[in-house]
Design goal:
The protein is 43% helix and 18% strand. The protein has 172 residues and is an alpha+beta fold. The protein has one domain. Strands 2-3-4 form a three-stranded antiparallel beta sheet. A two-stranded antiparallel ribbon has the order 1-5. Helix 4 packs antiparallel against helix 5. The protein is globular and about 55 Å long.
Length: 172
């Protein structure tokens, strides 16, 4: 691993600490429970809930989902190092990632801050409405654009197997 001359010893130490935690999370996702034997949430399940009721919907996440918040672009650095390159120590840049396991392969998904906050809320057991409100706090787009982004996020995340069920809070 080379240095670009603009990084400090502190950056190098901080990167190593975050990289070690990242690699540990990847191993935990690989070794932990996955979604291989769980049903994936289908589009019909999303559309079966009235938009007026979405605020009270509770989403069950795949058990392998882990979120990573970093001061460095860990995914880029990790990918370059894994490919056998000698990447320079990257400049600090806040990054957010989701890790999942599908078909016994750990997948890494880069996230924006609002996406990270939305998924963090859902993982903490917040309703869909609460998690959306949390994500909006970190978004700089207008409400209509945010609504369009939400549709894209949920399509992408559903296809990636992030969710296993959706139900109305208090209704089992």
């Amino acid at each position: 691993m080379s240095s670009d001359g603009d990084t400090s010893q502190d950056d190098w130490v901080d990167l190593l600490i975050e990289l070690a935690a990242f690699e540990r999370a990847i191993n935990e996702v690989f070794d932990g429970p996955g979604s291989e034997n769980l049903p994936a949430l289908e589009a019909s399940q999303w559309t079966s809930i009235s938009p007026a009721d979405w605020g009270e919907a509770q989403v069950t996440m795949t058990p392998s989902l882990r979120l990573i918040e970093s001061q460095f672009p860990l995914n880029d650095f990790f990918s370059a190092a894994r490919a056998g390159n000698d990447p320079p120590i990257p400049a600090r840049r806040p990054t957010w990632l989701a890790l999942t396991r599908r078909q016994y392969i750990v997948r890494r998904h880069e996230l924006s801050r609002p996406q990270y906050e939305m998924l963090a809320g859902l993982l903490e057991g917040q309703t869909l409405g609460e998690a959306i409100a949390r994500a909006i706090q970190y978004s700089s787009v207008e409400v209509d654009a945010f609504a369009a982004e939400l549709r894209e996020w949920f399509q992408t995340w559903s296809a990636a197997g992030f969710f296993t069920a959706i139900e109305m809070r208090g209704v089992r």
